[in-house]
Write a structure and sequence with these properties.
By secondary structure, the chain is α+β, with helices and mostly antiparallel strands. The chain is built from seven helices and six strands; from the N terminus they run E-H-E-H-E-E-H-H-H-H-E-H-E. The longest helix is centred in the N-terminal third of the chain and has 12 residues. The radius of gyration is 15 Å and the shape is globular.
Length: 163
C-alpha cells in the first residue's frame, strides 16, 4: 500500500509494516536493522506473554506499554514511543479495538488484518524509512524474513482520534 511520499519527518513518515511468527526470526531481523542506516525499527506490537530473555534484551523491546482495547480479546503490548502515544490517544478518544485506532494510517481492511495478526500471536514490526530510496532495500530484507505481510504506510502522529 503506497501513501504520501513524506519520508522521515517528525510528525509524519513512511513505515514498512512486517509480520513475524516467532521471536527468533524477529530477533535476527532486529539485529540486522540495528546496524543498518536505511531504516530504524520504530515499534513492535504483539499480544504474547512468551517474550524470551534474548528478545527482551533488544533495545527496541526494553520498554513495553500495554494497551487494553475494550473489544480486544487480550492486552496488546507496544514498544514505547510515538506509535504507542498515538494509539493510547485513540484509545482514550473511544477506539474500541486496535483496528478502530488504525484506519487513518492503514485503511480499514489493512487495520483489521493487522489486528487479526496480533490476536493470532504474530509479532508486528513497524520500521521507519529514512529516505524514499530505502524502501526497496528494507522491504527486500523484510519480505525474505516475514511470511505474512510487508506493506508501506504513512503515519501522521498529529491526526486526532475520530470519536
Amino acid at each position: 500500500m503506497l501513501g504520501e511520499q513524506t519520508i522521515g519527518s517528525q510528525t509524519s513518515g513512511s513505515f514498512v509494516v512486517a509480520v513475524f511468527d516467532d521471536w527468533h526470526t524477529l530477533h535476527a531481523v532486529l539485529l540486522e536493522l540495528e546496524n543498518d542506516k536505511a531504516a530504524q525499527p520504530m515499534a513492535l506490537l504483539h499480544a504474547r506473554r512468551d517474550v524470551p530473555p534474548k528478545a527482551s534484551a533488544s533495545r527496541l523491546l526494553k520498554q513495553m506499554t500495554e494497551l487494553n482495547f475494550e473489544r480486544s480479546r487480550q492486552h496488546i503490548a507496544c514498544t514505547r514511543g510515538h506509535l504507542t502515544e498515538a494509539l493510547a490517544a485513540r484509545l482514550t478518544g473511544g477506539a474500541r479495538t486496535l483496528a478502530d485506532a488504525l484506519p487513518d494510517w492503514l485503511g480499514s481492511n489493512q487495520a483489521k488484518q493487522l489486528e487479526s495478526n496480533v490476536e493470532r500471536g504474530h509479532l508486528v514490526l513497524c520500521v521507519e524509512l529514512r529516505t524514499p530510496d530505502d524502501f526497496s532495500v528494507v522491504c527486500g530484507r523484510l519480505v525474505q524474513a516475514s511470511p505474512h505481510m510487508v506493506e508501506l504506510c504513512n503515519i501522521n502522529f498529529n491526526l486526532r482520534c475520530r470519536a
